[in-house]
C-alpha cells in the first residue's frame, strides 16, 4: 500500500492540556505557616535574579572632608593635651611671697639704681609703707623667672628704656584700693617723647585687674569692658602713679575705676593724665584653675 494510507489524520483543532498547580497553590505549599499578608509581601519582593550593581566611588570632596575632619580632631586633641601638660608644669613652679619680691630686684645700671632709690624713698612710698592697712609688693616679680619673659609688661617691656624697674604696688584690702608707682623710659612712646596711649591703657587694664581679683569669688577674672579718657599727654622718662579702686562688686563681677597721675615732687600737686573705668568678670570655670593663677596675677 502506498505509505499515505498509513498516515493518521489528526484534527488541527485538537490541543493537548496538562494540569499544573497554580502559583497560589505553590506559594501555600512553600509557606504554609505564613499569614496571607506576609505571603503577599513575600511574593512582591521575590525576584528570579538580581544583577550586581557596582557601588559608586566616593567623590574627592567627600574624601577630602573626611580626611580634614580626622586631621582637625587629631590636631585639636594634641593641642589640648599639650596645653594641659604645660599648665600642670606651670602650677608646680614656686611663687614668691610679697616680702620676697621686695628684695628680688637688683638694678642693672646707674639709671635703674637712681630710679629704684627715688621710688623707694619718695614721701608717697614712705607714707604708704608706714600705713599698716597697706601691703607692699612688686607684682611683676611674683611671676616665676622661668616664664617671666613671656609676659608683655613683666618681660618684654621691662628694660632700661621701657619699664625701667619693676613697679612698686601698695594694696589696701580693707578699702579695695591699689596704688602703684613706676617709671617709664623713652622706648614706650607713640609720638616722640610721649608715652603711647595704648600702653597706658595696658597698664591701667593690668592694674585694675589686680585691684579686682581679691573681691571675686575665686580671685581671678578677665576684662569684659574698658573705657579710657585721656586728659593730658604723658611724658616719657617720667615717674607715674596709678590709683585704682573697686567701686562695686556683685557675684562674679567687679567694677573698677582708676587713673594715672604724675608723681609729684615736694610742693607740687599731682596731675591726672588718664582716667579709666572697667568691668571684670570671673570665668565660670575659674574654680577648676586652682589658686596659683590668682597668685601669679597678684
UniProtKB/TrEMBL annotation:
Keywords: Membrane, Transmembrane, Transmembrane helix. Pfam families: 4HBT. Coiled coil: none annotated. Residues 193-262 form the Thioesterase domain. The chain crosses the membrane at residues 64-84. CDD domains: PaaI_thioesterase. InterPro entries: HotDog_dom_sf, PTE-AB_protein, Thioestr_dom. This is Thioesterase domain-containing protein. It comes from Aspergillus puulaauensis.
